[in-house]
């Protein structure tokens, strides 16, 4: 409760109540949506900038709501995190992604986004290993994308989670690099195989000589440490050229493809085999 002026105690204001109701609504609907099959995983190619070939797909969740239409993850992932639904949802996403990847050629891996809430849940590593085993997918073909916010607290558990899965061959990517609490310490401490440079370095008001120099520096570090550096959010050929010249090894964005359903991902791979 908040003490407002004149010693009145006011519990909630109207907008807080509305937010809470809305959150409860989304939570209930999300649980039902999982049962009703309204969620799907779409796949966006991650392309080798040298050869133009697809090296991986990032799994991105989509919710097709019967009345509200397509809901973006930014609208429901935060609620799923706050309510803990993300744990069930996340296990389901990993299982779907692993199953799809098992159908692709061996050189193609799948990247799955993990939220800190999922990683902190008891049995998190086991959930992922179970999904891999059930799909018959080699752990080395799974890449887990985490953001720097993961490292703000609870470092022991996080370190154990990463070490346990890395020991089995699962790879880790540092996502949205350059947006949060970017610290080279995390790169030094954890076995990342990949750094994804945030889209804000590729397009928008902050792009210029400075952002270019930063990408260059990150790419140089990546080359020395034998990490892939991915440029996200590539929409134009100019942007592709810029990040390639700066030394990024992989690219992702609408210029190559949006996230597509699993059958279209399989078709993109089949077309590659023909050419
Ligand atoms: P992210 O991990 O940074 O994912 C990339 C986002 O950028 C995706 O949005 C993708 O569709 C979008 N994108 C890709 N290429 C371009 C481009 O060229 N231009 C522009 N403007 N956007 C591009 P999406 O699918 O809406 O996902 C948003 C965020 O939601 C993701 O950001 C990720 O943080 C979260 N998310 C998505 N799927 C999952 C999931 O399965 N689990 C968890 N925990 N989070 C997820
Ligand atoms: Ca991601
Ligand atoms: Ca990202
Ligand atoms: Ca993001």
UniProtKB/TrEMBL annotation:
Coiled coil: none annotated. Residues 23-273 form the EAL domain. Keywords: Membrane, Transmembrane, Transmembrane helix. Signal peptide: none annotated. This is EAL domain-containing protein. It comes from Altericroceibacterium indicum. The lineage of its organism: Bacteria, Pseudomonadati, Pseudomonadota, Alphaproteobacteria, Sphingomonadales.
């Amino acid at each position: 409760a908040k003490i407002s002026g004149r010693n009145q105690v006011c519990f909630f204001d109207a907008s807080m109540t509305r937010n809470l109701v809305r959150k409860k609504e989304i939570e209930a609907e999300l649980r039902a949506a999982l049962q009703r099959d309204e969620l799907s995983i779409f796949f966006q190619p991650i392309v080798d900038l040298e050869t133009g070939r697809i090296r991986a797909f990032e799994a991105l969740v989509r919710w097709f709501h019967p009345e509200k239409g397509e809901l973006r993850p930014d609208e429901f992932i935060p609620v799923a995190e706050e309510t803990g639904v993300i744990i069930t949802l996340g296990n389901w996403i990993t299982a779907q992604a692993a199953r799809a990847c098992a159908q692709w050629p061996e050189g193609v891996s799948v990247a799955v986004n993990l939220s800190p809430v999922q990683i902190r849940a008891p049995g998190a590593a086991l959930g992922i290993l179970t999904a891999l085993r059930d799909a018959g997918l080699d752990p080395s073909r799974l890449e887990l994308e985490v953001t720097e916010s993961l490292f703000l607290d609870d470092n022991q558990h996080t370190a154990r989670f990463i070490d346990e899965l890395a020991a089995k061959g699962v790879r880790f990517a540092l996502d949205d690099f350059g947006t949060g609490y970017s610290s080279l310490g995390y790169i030094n401490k954890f076995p990342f195989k990949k750094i994804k440079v945030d889209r804000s370095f590729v397009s928008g008001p902050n792009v210029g000589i400075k952002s270019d120099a930063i990408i260059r520096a990150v790419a140089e570090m990546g080359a020395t440490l034998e990490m892939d550096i991915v440029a996200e959010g590539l929409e134009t050929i100019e942007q592709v050229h810029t990040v390639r010249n700066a030394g990024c090894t992989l690219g992702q964005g609408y210029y190559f493809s949006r996230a597509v359903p699993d059958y279209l991902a399989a078709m993109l791979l089949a077309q590659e085999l023909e050419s």
